[in-house]
Amino acid sequence: MGKLVIALGGNALQSGNGPATAEAQLEVVKKTCEHIAEISCRGYEIAIVHGNGPQVGRILQAYETAKEVTPVMPFDVCGAMSQGYIGYHIQQCLKYALNLRNKNIPVVALATQMIVDGADPAFQNPTKPIGQFYNEQEAKKQEQEKGYVMKEDAGRGFRRVVASPLPKRIVEIDAVKKLWDSTIVITCGGGGVPVVEKDTGILEGVAAVIDKDFAAELLAEQVEADCLMILTEVEKVAINFNKPNQENLSHMTLEEASRLVEEGQFAPGSMLPKVQAAMKFVRANPSKKAIITSLDKSLEALEGKTGTVLTFA
Ligand SMILES: Nc1ncnc2c1ncn2[C@@H]1O[C@H](COP(=O)(O)OP(=O)(O)O)[C@@H](O)[C@H]1O
Ligand SMILES: NC(=O)OP(=O)(O)O
C-alpha cells in the first residue's frame, strides 16, 4: 500500500453553491472522511493537508466588518483560526468514520507553521484567491472601498487575491514524523501559517496564504510518501477547460505536463499550482506518482480507475 499525503481543496470543502456556513462544510467533511477512512482501512498510512482560501477570507471579512466592536485579528492569526476549525471538523468526522469501521487509530490536527522567505517576490505580486466570489461590479467596489486586489478566478467570478510565498520549511516536521507510525496527522492546514525566521531565531507571522498544494508536496517529500494525492472539485485535470473542446486527462508525464503548463492550460491560483506541485513531486521522486481527482473519487483513483495520474515518464 504505502504512504500517502492527501491534500483537500479549500473550495472543495465548501458545499456547491450554497452558503459557506460551518454546518455546510461539516457535511462535506463528513462525506470526505468516509472516503479517507476507507483508504486508511485499505492499509495506506495517511497525512492530511487542507486548503483554507474561502475560510480564511471569510474570517478576515468577519473581523473587518465587526471592527467597531472587536479588534481585527492579524492575518496570520486568521490563518491559524482556519486551521483550527477545519482541522477540528476533519478530526471529528474522520475519527467517527474510522470507529464505524472498527479501525482504532488516533487522528490529530496539528497547528503548523511554515517558514517562508520574507524577500519572496510573491509579497509584491498577490496571486492567491481567498474568500467569496464576486461579480465584476462588486469586485470593483471592493477594490475602491477597501483597496483589495481582485482577480478573476478560473471562470467562477472575482475574488480577493493575497500574497502567496513558497513554503520553505515545516516548523513542526519532527512532530509529524514522530506521530506518523501511530496516528493520522492533519498538518500544514492552509499551507501552514506563514512565518519568517528572524536573526534571533524568533518566528513572526506574516500576511499571506501559502498554497496548500505546494505545502502538501513539501510534506510528501519530507515524509517520503509514495503518492501525493490532490483532491479538489473536478474528477480529472482538463485541457481547454470550460470550452466546447474540453478534454479530460487520465495521465500526464512530466514532459507532457510541462508543455501544457507552457501552453497556459491550467488556471493560475486554481489548477496550475496543483499541476506544478504534482510535477515537483514526481521530478524529485521519479519512481512515484501524483494523482489529482475529486474528493469522492479518491479511492477509485488510488485503484487506477479514474483521476489524472502524473508520472515521471
Ligand atoms: N485545466 C483545468 N482542469 C480542470 N479544472 C480546472 C482547470 N483550470 C481551472 N480549473 C478549476 O480549478 C478548480 C480547482 O481549483 P480550486 O477550486 O482553487 O481548488 P481547491 O479545491 O484546492 O480550493 C477546479 O474545480 C476547476 O474549476
Ligand atoms: N491555502 C490554500 O491553498 O487554500 P485553497 O485550497 O482553498 O486554495
UniProtKB/TrEMBL annotation:
Q: Which family does it belong to?
A: Belongs to the carbamate kinase family.
What is the name of the protein in this document? Carbamate kinase
**Signal peptide location:** none
Spell out the GO cellular component terms annotated for this protein, sorted alphabetically and separated by semicolons.
cytosol
The keyword Lipid biosynthesis is annotated on this UniProt entry: no
**Domain Aspartate/glutamate/uridylate kinase, residue spans:** 3-285
Q: Which organism is it from?
A: Aminipila luticellarii
Keywords, comma-separated and alphabetical: Arginine metabolism, Kinase, Transferase
Q: Which NCBIfam families match?
A: arcC, PRK12352.1
The molecular function terms of the Gene Ontology recorded here are: carbamate kinase activity
Per the UniProt entry, what is one GO biological process? L-arginine deiminase pathway
Its domain of life? Answer: Bacteria
The reaction(s) catalysed by this protein are: hydrogencarbonate + NH4(+) + ATP = carbamoyl phosphate + ADP + H2O + H(+)
Pathway assigned in UniProt? Metabolic intermediate metabolism; carbamoyl phosphate degradation; CO(2) and NH(3) from carbamoyl phosphate: step 1/1
